[in-house]
Amino acid sequence: MDLGIKGKWALVGGASKGLGLGCAQALAAEGVNVVMVARGAEALQAAAQAIREAQPGVQVLPVAADITTPAGREAVFGAAGGPGKAFDIVVTNAGGPPPGDFRQWSRDTWIAALDANMLTPIELIKATVDGMAERGFGRIVNITSGAVKAPLQVLGLSNGARTGLTGFVAGLARSEIAARGVTINNLLPGAFETERLRTTLGGLAQKQGQTYEAVADGRRQNVPAKRFGNADEFGAVCAFLCSRHAAYITGQNILADGGAYPGTF
């Protein structure tokens, strides 16, 4: 299927590895030019080079910056050769806050979680959504978490911050931009084989006094698919939501979790 987005420009956060990289790879495979942002310069450069080699017809611009800061966002929007703020596609993605016990979290810990996982996506939306509406096409995909629908106790920081973003998006996606070709959706990963999952399972293993392998296997068995997802299949879902064919999907929370969420809705 031709997704109809060849030649568009995309901004992808957390793009040096994991789910962000999967999204960047999938978009580039559709002919989308990609500005990749992540904090780790070495891993980012390697990821960008791999995409260039796999997709020589697209432009790939890596920006090593902390997008949760004003300076980092300025670096992204000022990337030489990029579209400035004229992105057609924005995939917001930041590393989730650490797991733990809420009794140990200070106000500063909460502010950091909100800044990375709620306020930064809102800032990126604010900087790009009006331009998208003026041009008559825009796709914003926020990578949140399956914990928005089925919260995990140890992920309280993520539960709170990402649910706040979800509420904000629910209103904005249904505003006047919906009639101007702009969609905003949230993509909720369940258990995917990423560094984030390994950190979370490691924390659970320590808390429960079990081995990592035992906790990981128990998590797999709770997924109807009996496995963890991979970044390639996650990226494919993201690319579809960014396509012209997804123009009638907005304000939705798309859960990709191998069937783990037990609810009907």
What features would you describe in this structure?
The protein has one domain (9-190, 229-256): NAD(P)-binding Rossmann-like Domain (Rossmann fold). The protein has a 7-stranded parallel β-sheet with strand order 3-2-1-4-5-6-7, with helices on both faces. It has helices at residues 18-29, 41-54, 70-77, 107-135, 156-172, 195-208, 212-221, 231-241; strands at residues 9-13, 33-38, 60-64, 89-92, 138-143, 182-189, 253-256. The model has no long low-confidence stretch (mean pLDDT 95). It has 265 residues and is α/β, with parallel strands linked by helices. Helix content is 43%, strand content 14%. The longest helix is centred in the middle third of the chain and has 29 residues, at 107-135.
